[in-house]
Amino acid sequence: MALVHIVLALALLEFFFFALAVARARGTYKVAAPATTGNEVFERYFRAQMNTLEQLVVFGPSLMLFAWYVNARVAAALGLLFVIGRAMYFTGYVRAAEGRHTGFLLSSVPNVALLIGGLIGAVMAFIRSQFA
């Protein structure tokens, strides 16, 4: 499980760096808080960060469920793919909105796999416990 926890920490650290990039972009493009619009480039930074936050809500619990009920090493590998995909998503989106698609795919597929796998694993564990 330590490997899974390391991957989870990397995902959180990545999000922290995305937040720092948004803060820098806020200054660079003169978008004063609390505004979130006013400059197209800043808006892409902001949306990339917020979309990552939305994905993290699913990622963390799904990663842990999959690791617990299915396989921790596979969970860590899928989680690492998610982190790499999110980095590609962020950099692609900041360059141009159309540049986000590959990173989105590389982070969404593992996220869905972790969620569905974790749910199936939990259901199977519940069923086994009822007939033990």
Care to describe what's here?
This protein is mostly helical and 132 residues long. The chain has one domain (2-130): Four Helix Bundle (Hemerythrin (Met), subunit A). The protein contains four helices and no strands. The chain has helices at residues 2-28, 40-69, 72-95, 101-130. Helix 2 (40-69) packs antiparallel against helix 3 (72-95). The two termini are 26 Å apart.
List the helices and strands and how they pair.
Layout: H1 2-28, H2 40-69, H3 72-95, H4 101-130
Uncertain residue ranges: none
What percent strand? under 5%
Provide a count of the helices: 4
How many distinct domains?
1
Q: In angstroms, what is the radius of gyration?
A: 17 Å
Mean pLDDT over all positions: 97
| Coarse shape | elongated
What is the CATH architecture descriptor? Up-down Bundle
Count of DSSP strands: 0
What's the level 1 CATH class? Mainly Alpha
SS-derived structural category: mainly alpha
Q: Element order, helices and strands?
A: HHHH
Q: Key terms for this structure?
A:
4 helices, 84% helix, mainly alpha, 132 residues
Summary of the model, kept short:
The protein is an all-alpha fold and 132 residues long. The protein has helices spanning 2-28, 40-69, 72-95, 101-130. Helix content is 84%, strand content 0%.
